[in-house]
Amino acid sequence: MRRAYLDNNATTPVLPEVLVAMQPFFLEEFGNASSIHHHGQHTRAAIEHARENVAQLLGARSSEIVFTSGGTEADNLALFGLAQPGDHVITSTIEHHAVLNACKRLEQIGCEVTYVSVDGQGIVDPDEVHRALRPNTKLISIMAANNETGVVQRIADIGTVAAEADAYFHTDAVQAAGKVPIDVAAWKCDLLSISGHKIHAPQGIGALYVRKGTLLQPLFYGGRHERSRRAGTENVPGIVGLGKAAEIALNGFSDGSVARISELRDRIETFVTETIELVGVNSGMASRVPNTTNIYFDCIEGEAMVIALDLKGIAVSTGAACSSGAIEPSHVLTAMGLSGDRARASIRFSLGKQNTKEDVDLLLGILPEVVGRLRELSPVYNRRTVVGR
Amino acid sequence: MSGGVDSSTVAAMLRAEGNNVIGLTMQLWNQRRLAGSHGMPEAVHGRCCSLDDVYDARRVAETLGIPYYVVNQESRFEHDVVRPFVEEYLSGRTPIPCSLCNNHLKFDQLILTARQIGADLLATGHYARVEHDPDSGRWLLKRPVDRAKDQTYFLFGLTQEQLSRTLFPLGEMTKPEVRELAKQHKLALAEKPDSQEICFVPNGDYKSFIDAYLEEQGEALPDTSGELVTSSGDVIGEHSGVHNFTVGQRKGLGVATGSPLYVIQIRGDKREVVVGSGEDLMSKTLTAKRLNWISISELTEPVRVTAKIRHRHEPAAATVEPAGGDQALVTFDQPQRAVTPGQAVVFYQDDVVVGGGWIG
Question: What does pTM read for this prediction?
Answer without folding.
Answer: 0.90
